Amino acid sequence: MQRVAVLGSTGSIGTNCLEVIGSLPERLSLHGVAARSSWKLLGEQSERFAPRFAVLEDIRLKGQIPGGAFSPRTELLFGPDGVARIASDPEVDVVVSSIVGAAGLEGTWAALEAGKRVCLANKETLVVAGPLVMDLAQRRGAQVLPVDSEHSAVFQALQSGRSQEVRRIVLTASGGPFRGWTSSQLDTVTPEMALKHPNWVMGPKITIDSATLMNKALEVIEARWLFGLRADQIEVVVHPQSIVHSFVEFVDGSIMAQLSPPDMKLPIQYALTWPERLDGPAPRLDWQTAFHLDFLPPDLDTFPALGLGFEVARRGGTCGAVLNAANERAVELFLKGQLKFRDIPRACRAVLETHTFDLNPTLTDLRRLDGWAREEVTRWIS
Ligand code: MG
Looking at the domain covering 2-146, what would its CATH class be? Predict the structure, then answer.
């Protein structure tokens, strides 16, 4: 029996994760849940699973929650300390890190310090501080297992060979809602248009990132640190059906892929139960209905965010933290109607170019740069 804490349990990954846990009651039990402020859904999760702890990160909610909203078997905690507490609780075996954005770093860090298995859905953690995070995991004997579908596919395919036999990995990208569009067509994009993803149902931040291809850029950086590859060993191919989740090419030319319908329950379950595979709730491919799979090269001129990802993966150091923070702020402003769609990668490039590069930053340096890059985007607009 594995006892699980889910950080970000009310988001898209979090709710899928609870479905997986609910369907494997002999193997997985929910020990803790944490959300930023969605107390109603968190209360329902407490009623259904009776975890030992529930955390609301927004400390202003303390004293505001009506009696009876949570199971009497659940202790309700508040603030970031509560998140760190459940991430490092001695009774927890596995921590699912699915808080969106750079905000997910703290809980992941606490879990790794405590030597846990971390199922990482928060790619920003590795984008911001990849080398520091992987080094911490190694020192504490903690595991970092990918939940991101592409990285889960690579992780599964890597098991067909030895690490020194890998030539390159190829991450697949759906291409998002604007695949095949021209730059001038992209000038007309509104938040409503960008929030409609053809294949995946996800939160707003990652949906916008998928439309700009910044999501793939962040995934290139994530893969570089997670698998210890060079940037030139990572490629991206557009695959509109989102059924092949990624490829690994070995030195002999053999290519291994992982296929499944686009649904996050499979990569979540694999990270939770690895190295075992269990019969779970993920949907299956139907081979009795004809379908085809397409692959085409990405359009780097129309979607310059992807080029930024390769560049940042190559340079490392402070670049990931700066790109991530600039993008988070730019997406926020785009959703508020204060920034144009095509200005998201432009703002990110401008902020990257002005920042003072450091190859070996500390966590404190990265936190400071995170704040700086957000302000810099605001300045860039005016
Ligand atoms: Mg992904």
Answer: alpha beta
